[in-house]
Hints:
By secondary structure, this protein is an all-alpha fold. It has six helices and no strands. The radius of gyration is 36 Å and the shape is rod-shaped. The N and C termini lie far apart (73 Å).
Amino acid sequence: MTRLYVLLMLTVATALVAIGYRLGVDHEQGKAQALERSQLRQAFEQGQALGTVRDRVVTEYVDRVQVIEKQGKTIIERVPVYVSEKADRACVVPAGFVRLHDAAAHALPAPEPAGAADEAPSGVGLSAVAVTTAGNYAKCEANAEQLKSLLDYLRLHKLITSPRNADAPP
């Protein structure tokens, strides 16, 4: 009888250990699934926030560049008002200026001086210099706006995806 009692106790103990183990496994799996659901929900919300931020930054960038381009075109159209044909004829743009300007516009080293050749008339009118300069400045402003927008997007991306700011609004 004692052997039967010991065997029964061992069976009950083994069953309790198995039930406890199974309950523990189920509990841990439930916690892991809840954590995974939470992480997926957070990733989805971050993705939505990043999409919203991206759309807003791109829209603002496009709007700003359109304004810059329009202003640049307006200035170029107004060159004849500020630089008349008479001023074009009166101001001789030297070849050296054109060479230096072109080198600067293409980020090349300054050309070697050519002496008298640099002083010769280039055939480029002052109005053409104004148009070129206005166009270059408009492109430069558009590039600067693009950089500002990219930096803004990166700052907001970091803010949204930073673990300590996971609950921060976009």
